Amino acid sequence: MPLIELLFATHNTHKLREVSAIIGTRFRLLTLGDVGFDEEIPEPHPTLHENALEKAQVLHRLFPHLNVIAEDTGLEVAALNGAPGVMTARYAGTGLAQDNMRLLLQNLQSSTNRAAQFRTVLALIENKGQTHYFEGIAQGTIRTEPSGAGGFGYDPIFEPKGYRQTFAEMPDTLKNSISHRYKALQQLSDFLQQYSPI
After folding, report:
1. Half-sphere exposure of 45 toward its Cβ, with a 13 Å CA cutoff?
2. CATH number of the domain that 63 lies in?
């Protein structure tokens, strides 16, 4: 089966590295730099599905010959009614992971319910124009303080269910085999290999 080219709608180098490691050699991942796109794509919508679709549609209009994938990921905390959700990357308003974690821990100080989940929604727009969604969820809890130097974002305070390490304490190979992003990408991979839609 020939390599399937996928244009990934992100400038986030951490996500690019993680996705590249997960999809391995089954696909050829094109970056926005590969196609000369250096703009930021807005995420103005209230749901992960809408934001993922928005990013995919922007690139599909510009590069209709390519298969485009875009994702939006949110950390959903039960005690905060699902917040930060779509505001995950911009929760504290500074765009800095340390500030986001600090604010989240501050907002959870008086709560004994630490249940949370990471949710990734992946939108695929084929070069034929068809749109498909894939979703991955990693359930877990929020630690009371950060631990670990790996990963990115909220990884130092998120302990996935069934483990006693945060995402930031895990080797990349372990995190990438159980993460929300892995689960969504695995569904994408299975879809492409089973149905060969492209």
Report:
1. 13
2. 3.90.950.10
